[in-house]
Amino acid sequence: MSDWSLWLKSLHIMAFAAWMAAMWYLPRLMVYHVDKVIGGDSSETFKIMERRLLKGIATPAMILTFVFGIWLAIVQNQFSDGWLHAKLLLVLLLAGCHGFLAGQVRKLARDERPRPAGFYRMINEVPTLLFVGIVLLVILKPF
Asked: Are 47 and 29 in contact (CB under 8 A)?
């Protein structure tokens, strides 16, 4: 493996770590936000926190994860590897989860309460399950 691919792998892992941190924290913010009084100081603070986390960390980290990951797969000629196909499927599901949470942020910003706190507690586990699958596929490369 060339030094160049080690740099790409490092950048990919750092971007993925930042994306995952945001994906774990965003639904947790929503758990607390939905129980706050609409228009109250706490609700307004959660709106700011959710928007900044999504736009300042989660979305840029997701984009960088894709850019560095695709670049790395090209450099290492891995697009024919079965484990990578499975990983990409899980990453696309994670991106779908990201999109769903982004929609929830927009609804909460409009003072809608689309789901109860319990829903966000449950949805908070989806990124974790996808994370476990992604890491196992990358480390074990089972096929």
From this structure: no
Q: Is the dihedral of CA 10, 12, 18, 24 positive or negative?
A: negative
Helix, strand, coil tally for the chain in percent (to 5): 80, 0, 20
pLDDT in tens, 124-136: 999 999 999 999 9
Give the number of other Cβ atoms within 10 Å of residue 73's Cβ: 17
**Measured distance CA(55)–CA(57) in Å, rounded:** 6
Residue 108's contacts (CB-CB under 8 Å, 6 or more residues apart) are: 30, 33, 34, 46, 47, 50, 114
Please give the model's pTM, rounded to 2 decimal places: 0.95
